[in-house]
């Protein structure tokens, strides 16, 4: 058994263990959907971080920066800026209401039944499109990790889907929160370890690392090209694409601000 | 099992109480203080962020200047967004403690006036 498969199976086993523990503890609707409203701020913070470190943002942004240099970095910055926007414009007014979900707040201020129905509907609509992208990412990743074990892409997507359903159906919010906390910590440690390994390659000299990034040589259409990954222009060609770049900058901010409530505020 | 279904806004007695709070000078002062922090902080950060794609697109010469070794001004500016964002979040955290004190103060006075009636 390869190391990748062993790590993957260990992670699945431990998360299923968390789900089993949560399922035994969970009693009643509030316990199931909102973990009895007893998740602390730190736990929730880690869980939100885990939500955000998804296949699309964690791997996608790393890939974009690796392939497009500075132009890919915009994706990381735009997503981050959206968090500050949410903190100041959405979370701030909600903070003092003493409620735990977006639906709770709106139901308190308005007529509860239609608000609850609409909150559920909009959440499902947002999550559906978000989930499709995540499932494609997760399936591709699992198929890649377990490439030599005979698991196809379709099997990987189905397997990941069934696993997610087990977490949510049996564990409720308590299990999904703890699964995300474990995930956030593991990914943070992996990112730190990778950073140390990369810097070791450059003898822990930041100058050497940046110098290497400013002249990356690779083959493109059988021709050796040398590109500067610290400059803009690998994706957006100045000056023709400068408006595209600005437009992306704006969309990454407003799109992320709109998307975070789907992935994050449902939890907040 | 479910939380008690008291909707503050729908309770007439509560409604009168909260109306008085809403018009009180102390509450208006709290709102003004919140606005005085939130609006400038938000506008500053958005302008700071949008300057990045604008400057990179429209002043590429300036932004490709090497500032620290091979590090470009554009890259440094992009990374500074994280620093500025965290700083603003830190300021907000400090301000929110002050807001909470004001709110606590307001609630204590409200209870006192209720007791006096």
Question: Could you describe the 3D structure shown?
Answer:
The complex is a heterodimer of chains A (268) and B (117). With 268 residues, chain A is mainly α. Chain A has one domain (3-182, 237-265). Chain A is built from ten helices and two strands; from the N terminus they run H-H-H-H-H-H-H-H-H-E-E-H. Chain A has a two-stranded antiparallel ribbon with strand order 1-2. In chain A, helix 4 runs antiparallel to helix 5 and helix 5 packs across helix 10 (242-265). Chain A is globular, with a radius of gyration of 21 Å. The model of chain A is unreliable at 262-268 (pLDDT under 50). With 117 residues, chain B is mainly alpha-helical. Chain B has a domain at 32-109. Chain B is built from four helices and two strands. Chain B has a two-stranded antiparallel sheet. In chain B, a hairpin with a 2-residue loop joins strand 1 (66-68) and strand 2. Chain B is elongated, with a radius of gyration of 23 Å.
Annotate the secondary structure layout.
The complex is a heterodimer of chains A (268) and B (117).
Chain A: H1 3-25, H2 28-34, H3 41-52, H4 55-68, H5 70-95, H6 102-109, H7 112-145, H8 153-201, H9 206-213, E1 216-220, E2 223-227, H10 242-265
Antiparallel strand pairs in A: 1-2
Helix pairs in contact in A: 1-8, 2-8, 3-8, 4-5, 5-10, 6-7, 7-8
Chain B: H1 12-23, H2 25-58, H3 60-63, E1 66-68, E2 71-72, H4 73-116
Antiparallel strand pairs in B: 1-2
Helix pairs in contact in B: 2-4
């Amino acid at each position: 058994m390869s190391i990748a498969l062993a790590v993957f199976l260990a992670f699945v086993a431990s998360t299923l263990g968390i789900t089993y523990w949560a399922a035994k503890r969970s009693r009643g609707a509030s316990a199931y959907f909102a973990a009895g409203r007893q998740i602390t701020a730190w736990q929730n913070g880690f869980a939100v971080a885990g939500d955000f470190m998804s296949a699309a943002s964690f791997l996608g942004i790393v890939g974009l920066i690796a392939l497009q240099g500075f132009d890919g970095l915009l994706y990381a910055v735009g997503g981050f800026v959206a968090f500050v926007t949410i903190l100041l414009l959405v979370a701030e007014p909600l903070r003092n209401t003493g409620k735990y979900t977006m639906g709770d707040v709106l139901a308190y201020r308005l007529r509860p039944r239609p608000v609850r129905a609409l909150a559920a509907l909009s959440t499902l609509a947002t999550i559906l499109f978000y989930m499709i992208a995540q499932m494609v990412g997760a399936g591709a990743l699992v198929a890649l990790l377990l490439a030599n074990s005979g698991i196809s892409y379709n099997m990987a997507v189905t397997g990941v889907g069934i696993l997610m359903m087990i977490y949510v159906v049996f564990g409720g919010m308590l299990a999904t929160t703890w699964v995300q906390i474990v995930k956030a910590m593991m990914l943070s440690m992996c990112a730190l370890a990778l950073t140390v390994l990369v810097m070791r390659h450059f003898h822990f000299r930041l100058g050497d690392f940046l110098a290497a990034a400013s002249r990356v040589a690779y083959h493109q259409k059988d021709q050796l090209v040398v590109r500067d990954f610290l400059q803009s222009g690998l994706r957006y060609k100045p000056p023709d694409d400068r408006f595209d770049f600005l437009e992306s900058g704006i969309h990454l901010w407003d799109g992320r601000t709109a998307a975070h409530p789907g992935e994050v505020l449902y939890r907040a | 099992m479910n939380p008690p279904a008291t909707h503050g806004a729908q309770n007439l007695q509560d409604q009168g109480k909260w109306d008085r709070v809403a018009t009180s000078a102390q509450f208006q002062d709290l709102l003004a203080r919140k606005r005085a922090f939130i609006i400038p902080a938000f506008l500053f950060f958005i302008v700071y962020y949008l300057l990045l794609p604008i400057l990179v697109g429209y002043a590429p010469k300036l932004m490709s200047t090497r500032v620290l070794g091979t590090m470009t001004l554009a890259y440094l500016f992009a990374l500074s967004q994280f620093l500025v964002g965290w700083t603003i979040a830190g300021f907000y955290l400090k301000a929110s403690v002050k807001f909470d004190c004001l709110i606590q103060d307001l609630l204590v006075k409200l209870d006192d006036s209720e007791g006096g009636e």
